[in-house]
């Protein structure tokens, strides 16, 4: 009974290698649920790729990655004093902190004698970072602290479409140059390979480090399949009562119980049960199952996404199959479409 991520190993590894080649200065990002693969596996894969650096989201993710990846670990979330102590002292020499304000710079210097840091410039994302002026002030302040290892600067751009981020990246680079940070490495994200090539041509002295997660780990969807097991199947007649909520089914069919529930991140979208009377009447006219207040599930049975018979349970889901659908046997598998970054798989099988 499980929700399993199946990986075509040769194809996936081929994609990882091809991405590393197409993206010079690649810094694989391993954060959160490890894009569905788990942080430990991504750390080992980054080591296998032979890149000199990996990035994690928070200080709490450093130890799990640093025990499996031999080189530098960049922490993407800017350093904050209230998270100090999250990292095992054995790893601190390999950790590079992101700094986004003068207060945090001084806070970090209070607790670390010779930290390694990257200065983050604010982008149109408005998440974290220095203004152009703040960056210059930070660079001046750092001259008083020669024991700090300033590794470079960072910009984190929004998820722009092709070409959308290049103009902003160029403007921000001007700010980095003005702060004297133009010659060190600059970490970027959400730029296409062509955009990075264009920046590299304009700034030949700058080394670009490309932080990439989604395009690297999940960029070849054909290499990834998610499957759930059929756990049970029950024939029901119209009007029969089913489920935790004692709801009656609006027509005859089969209740199919499959593995995968809220604990895995399945079905986080709200069922359409609250829809207005008019909306339901419209759906009824179309003959759709959503007329009965059902929500389409991510499970595919007999070629189609089937409806939830009721909201998913913690580790299993109850689906409704109309009478004309071929009912799979117990133990068979069905495919599931999930958001990988929000799914907790029971197992990851790499061929
Ligand atoms: C998450 C993150 C990335 C990677 O984002 P993807 O869209 O998964 O490639 C890069 N940089 C920063 C600062 C991030 O937080």
Fold and architecture overview:
By secondary structure, this protein is of the alpha/beta class. It has 9 helices and 18 strands. The chain has helices at 9-22, 39-49, 62-66, 102-111, 132-142, 166-178, 193-202, 214-217, 277-286, and strands at residues 3-7, 26-28, 53-56, 72-75, 95-99, 116-121, 149-155, 186-189, 208-212, 224-236, 241-242, 247-248, 253-259, 296-301, 304-308, 316-322, 333-336, 347-350. Helix 5 (132-142) runs parallel beside helix 6. The longest helix is centred in the N-terminal third of the chain and has 14 residues, at 9-22. It is elongated and about 80 Å long. The chain starts with a strand and ends with a strand. Mean pLDDT is 92; it is low at 269-274. Pyridoxal-5'-phosphate is lined by residues 29, 31, 76, 156, 189, 211-215.
Summarize the structure.
This protein has 351 residues and is of the alpha/beta class.
């Amino acid at each position: 009974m499980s929700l399993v991520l199946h990986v075509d190993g040769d194809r996936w590894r081929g994609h990882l290698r091809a991405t590393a080649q197409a993206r010079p200065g690649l810094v694989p990002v391993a954060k959160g649920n490890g894009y569905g693969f788990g942080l430990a596996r991504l750390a080992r894969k980054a080591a296998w790729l032979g890149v000199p650096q990996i990035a994690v989201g928070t200080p709490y993710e450093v130890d799990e990655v640093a025990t499996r990846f031999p080189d530098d670990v960049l922490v993407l979330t800017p350093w904050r004093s209230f998270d100090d102590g999250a990292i095992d002292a054995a790893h601190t020499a390999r950790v590079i902190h992101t700094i986004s304000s003068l207060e945090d710079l001084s806070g970090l210097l209070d607790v670390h004698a010779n930290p390694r840091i990257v200065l983050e410039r604010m982008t149109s994302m408005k998440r974290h970072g220095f203004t152009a002026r703040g960056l210059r002030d930070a660079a001046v302040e750092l001259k008083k602290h020669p024991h700090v290892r300033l590794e470079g600067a960072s910009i984190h751009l929004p998820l722009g479409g092709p070409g959308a981020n290049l103009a902003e990246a160029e403007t921000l680079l001007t700010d980095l140059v003005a702060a004297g940070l133009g010659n060190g490495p600059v970490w970027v994200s959400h730029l296409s390979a062509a955009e990075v090539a264009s920046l590299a041509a304009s700034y030949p002295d700058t080394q670009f480090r490309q932080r990439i997660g989604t395009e690297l780990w999940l960029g070849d969807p054909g290499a990834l399949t998610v499957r759930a097991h059929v756990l049970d199947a029950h024939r029901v007649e119209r009007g029969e009562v089913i489920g935790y909520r004692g709801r009656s089914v609006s027509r005859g069919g089969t209740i199919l119980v499959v593995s995968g529930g809220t604990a895995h991140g399945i079905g986080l979208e709200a069922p359409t049960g609250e829809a207005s009377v008019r909306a339901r009447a419209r759906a009824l006219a179309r003959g759709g199952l959503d007329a009965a207040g059902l929500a389409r599930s991510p499970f595919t049975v007999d070629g189609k996404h089937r409806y939830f018979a009721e909201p998913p349970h913690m580790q299993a889901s109850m689906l409704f199959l109309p009478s004309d659908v071929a009912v799979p046997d117990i133990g068979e598998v069905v495919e599931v479409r999930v958001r990988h970054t929000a799914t907790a798989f029971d197992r990851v099988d790499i061929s």
